[in-house]
Each structure stands twice: as structure tokens, then as C-alpha cells.
Amino acid sequence: MIRTYHEMSKFDSFAERLEYLQLTNEKHSSPRQVSNSFYKSPAWLAVRARVIERDYNSDLGILGMGIDGNIIVHHMNALVERDILEWDEEKLLNPDYLISVSYDTHNKIHYGLHEYKVYDERKPGDTKLW
């Protein structure tokens, strides 16, 4: 399945958009060995800025859901090493395959909607490990 911004934007709710983007049932491996230089390239930085502007700095492009902190521009279709090595511009730089997300939303897309354990805040003098 090829995911697109155009198709995703037909869903109004955050939950529907998140479900559309879920990658938890798909097998993929991150091309981290070769992706660092790509994510620093002028071409990526330019398209990233355009996508953030298009999405109004909003999580999943939903107005009123501003992102506090770093904005991740997520590839809606998982990249593989070959995409970067062969510079598949369509997969790498097409804004229709990209969406602005928060760190938490990005983790939900990749790892699912399960609840993460919340730890109590540490205090001075606290020597016990949770």
C-alpha cells in the first residue's frame, strides 16, 4: 500500500489519520547507515521546510494540534537503503509522501498505540530505583 498525504487528508480525525499511517504490521528496517547524509542534504532540508509550512506546524497536519518541540517530517512509506543510495527522488522528496508529526506520534506510527510505562519523577535524596 502506498500512503499519500492526499489520501490521508480525507480523514478528519487524528485517530483515523494515525490508523492510516500505522507501520506496526509491516516489516521494514531503517536505512540509518546511509540516511544521515541524506537528512542533512539541501534537497531534504528544503522539502522538509515546505512540508512543515504546508502542515501549519501541526501534528498530522491537523489545525489546532500544534507540535511542541521538534517537528519530525515522517516518510509515510518506509524507506529502504536502496532508495537513498540510488537517490529515488520520488520516494525521498515527494511532499505527497511526507507528513509533519510530533515525536510521540512518530513512535505511535512505528511502534503502535500501546501504553508506555510512566515513571514517578525523581526527587533529591531518592535512592530507590522505581
3D architecture notes:
The protein is globular. The protein is mainly alpha-helical and 130 residues long. It has one domain. It has a two-stranded antiparallel ribbon. The longest helix is centred in the middle third of the chain and has 13 residues, at 42-54. The chain contains seven helices and two strands. Mean pLDDT is 87; it is low at 115-119.
Strand content: 5-15%
Order of helices and strands: HHHHEHHEH
Low-pLDDT runs: 115-119
Shape: globular
Count of discrete domains: 1
Largest sheet: 2 strands, antiparallel
Look at the structure and give the mean pLDDT.
Answer: 87
Can you count the beta strands?
2
Tell me the strand order in the biggest sheet: 1-2
